[in-house]
Amino acid sequence: MNATIEMNGLSKWYEQVIGVNDITAQIGPGVTGLLGPNGAGKTTLLKLLTGQMKPSRGTAHILGHPVWNCPELYRDLGFCPDIDLFYEDMTGMEFLVYLIRLHGYRLHDAHRLADEVLERVHLTEAGNKKIGAYSKGMRQQIKLAQAIFHRPQVLLLDEPLSGMDPVGRKEMIDWIQAHGEEGRTVLVSSHILHEIESMTQRILLINHGMLIAEGNVHEIRELIQSHPCQVSIVSPDREVLSNRLVAFPEVVSIRRGDSEEELLIETRHPDRFHERLTDLILEEKLTIEALSSPDDNLQAVFDYLVQSS
Amino acid sequence: MTGPMESILNRLYPAWVIACKSAGRALFRKRCLIIAAVCGLPILAALAFRISIRPQPPGQHLALGGYQFYANLQATAFLQFLIPIVPLFLGTAAINDEIEEKTLIFLFLRPVSKFLIVLAKTVSVMISSTVILGVTGVLAFLICASTPGAAMLPGDLPLLMKDLWVYAMASFAYAGFFLFLGVKFRHPHIPALIFVFAWDEYAAYLPGSMGILNIKHYVTSIFPHQADQESFLRVLSYHEPVQPFLAVLVLLGIGLVFSFLAFAVFQSKDYGFEKASA
Questions:
Q1: Judged by CB atoms within 8 Å, which residues 145-164 of A form the interface with B?
Q2: ipTM higher than the 0.95 cut
Q3: What CATH code is carried by the domain that includes residue A166?
Q4: How far is A200 from chain B (nearest CA, A)?
Q5: pLDDT tens, residue by residue, A11-62
Q6: How many CB atoms lie within 10 A of CB A213?
Q7: What pTM was computed for the model?
Q8: C-alpha to C-alpha distance for B28 and A34, rounded to whole angstroms
């Protein structure tokens, strides 16, 4: 494998807090999933790989360059962070033109590139709206746009599907897969196994800052079969949704959540469940306000892996 | 010759983009309203002066003419107060705002060195401070120029240009210093205010040549105005003006050195860790 990302004993700690602990791994072209529960160290690892943090110990190289203090690397590296904070007073177009110009593009070329990338992320019409007025999904899209306008060789995405509606998720997954198939390196983090599984078979599993396993996702999938995956849906059409979901063979149980509009569903086949859910929402024109997968089940798998290792 | 120069300009281009964008955004933040209110005080003073002046009978002259009032305003309100205070408010916040709003990441992920980002922020504070001070200065100038018998325009326009030049140079030095404080301290306003109202104001009264260790010493050296009456304390202070060319070099040097120190502090801090480890 021609490794484009190399980590060697990579560690990061701050006083008593260990963020990443002695990770050694190589990642080649294509899509690789970085899987771990919340607080596992995924974001810290991505910050180390993008040169936002200096490692306490060990090294990280991307495309042969050390990542710390190497601004030229960003010509071939794109990063979509997990934060949901922007220059809220700028329009999507202004935001992109500003960042594109920092790559040395003159104003006219920056506008052309911004137009192109806004089209790629389906934000052409919203380009002249202030980012502060964007929906959660649109904010994810503009965040992706700032990471990909220069068609980087290496793309790091931190929880890119977080907060997106089912249609947006599918588009994003297709886009990530296509990007990987072009021979570029994509590292995607998530705490949800089926999300990663829908994009790639290659994963790095981390927990408590340590690399627990790397390899094929099927092995992890077998482990998780005994732990049904939980999905939380917040919808004003909860009753209709609940009646329809009962008929899904993938659904193990349905119960009411903490809030009035929340449904908690358990499924053993989250990928198939999400596909059918998307179809149902489109057919019945249902409104979904939030869709998330608490990671309790994944945590159980991690606990199992940690114990067995 | 074109090659290396073009290469240098290309390298500086992203920094210029950051400087202009940041300066533009700084001028439209809520903080700017407070600064505008403070800057409105000398304009109100100029207006009050203008309204109080009546045309004099032929052969009689005003005790305090438009030019003298403008010069006094510059030597007191501007030199002593506005010139350091405007960059203080803008400089301490220039990078801190991006750290607190977590937007710094979008600048870090570009092919621009961190030193150039810090320097660009210093230049942005210089630009926005000069714009604010410049607008205030021009308005005060126009009001004073409209005083009956002032005879200021257009002969004194070069003086106004010189004032704008002083604002820019002083703003660069103060911007670098306050940017450094902004990066170094969690609450930078306290040391910044102590600097402006204690050290920068009174270092000149300390024995020996301590006066050369404040920024105002060099600003005063290129300042084209003098107040009508020097205070008693002022007579006791150390102020041997340096050559204007040297003063400009020192002011530019202060801005650059403190920008570099800000970069060094900036480089040593892990701004992202708190969020990442949460």
A1: 146-147
A2: no
A3: 3.40.50.300
A4: 25
A5: 998 877 888 999 999 999 999 999 988 888 999 999 999 998 899 999 999 9
A6: 18
A7: 0.80
A8: 41
